[in-house]
Design brief:
Shape: globular
Strand content: 15-25%
Largest sheet: 5 strands, parallel
Radius of gyration: 17 Å
Strand order of the largest sheet: 2-6-1-7-8
Bound molecules: cytidine-5'-monophosphate
Length: 222
């Protein structure tokens, strides 16, 4: 193995992506954004016009969907069947659709296999909703990163408005809360904190503070 498997789970807007990227740089680990994989499938579903509850078509679509991460200059692009969809998967519409698509068994099964293959050699940090509970239940280090709904909504709002999306703060908080409820209440691989995960509430903490805390925990295990 090339190193440890580190799992970071938590609700949307808790700062997982930012923190995971920085932590991966510090440790020299590969960052795997599993949310981006579900988002790419959702984009593919929308383009194909497949119904969210049509599991047969979803399974077929997943089989012909190729998702690859391309890393250049620390920047990680998401390729869907050879097309760079990194920006297209980050709209509020795709966020909402992703949460519905990710509840479907065929979608979870297909990505589960891919995520395990990507992570099995170690030296990786995977971020998502079910990494420590389902994808790598034996991961050496697990974190559950959360923050208050207001704080998470506010962070998402700043991200979206910086990109020129026309959204309000109230809308963004409501969308974040709805997505978390769906992710927590679904039948397959619901969002929850693994029993052996280190829980971190990032409300009121700076990125550097969270990062230092996590890096310390990983170094203890290395
Ligand atoms: O992390 P991100 O907000 O990009 O994830 C988008 C959606 O993908 C989540 O709301 C969730 O429904 C789904 N997801 C998941 N399991 C993961 C990662 C993401 O179900 N491991």
């Amino acid at each position: 193995k090339n190193g440890l498997i580190v799992a970071i789970d938590g609700p949307s807007g808790a700062g997982k992506s930012t923190i995971t990227k920085l932590l991966a740089e510090r440790l020299g680990y590969i960052h795997i954004d599993t949310g981006a994989m579900f988002r790419a499938i959702a984009l593919s579903v929308r383009r194909a016009g497949v119904a969210v509850d049509d599991d047969v078509s979803l399974a077929a679509l997943c089989r012909r969907t190729d998702i690859v991460f391309v890393r250049d200059n620390g920047c990680c692009r998401v390729m869907l069947n050879g097309e760079d969809v990194s920006d297209a998967i980050r709209t509020p519409e795709i966020s909402a659709l992703t949460s519905r698509i990710s509840a479907r068994k065929p979608v979870r099964d297909s990505l589960l296999e891919l995520q395990r293959r990507m992570g099995e050699d170690g030296g990786v940090i995977l971020e998502g909703r079910d990494i420590g509970t389902v994808v790598f239940p034996d991961a050496e280090v697990k974190f559950f990163l959360s923050a208050s709904a207001e704080e998470r909504g506010r962070r998402r709002y700043l991200e979206l408005t910086a990109k020129g999306e026309a959204v309000t703060l109230e809308q963004t908080i409501a969308a974040v809360v709805k997505r978390d409820e769906q992710d927590e209440s679904r039948e397959h691989a619901p969002l929850r904190c693994a029993d052996d995960a280190v829980e971190i509430d990032s409300t009121g903490l700076s990125i550097d503070e969270v990062l230092a805390l996590m890096e310390g925990k990983v170094r203890e295990r290395q």
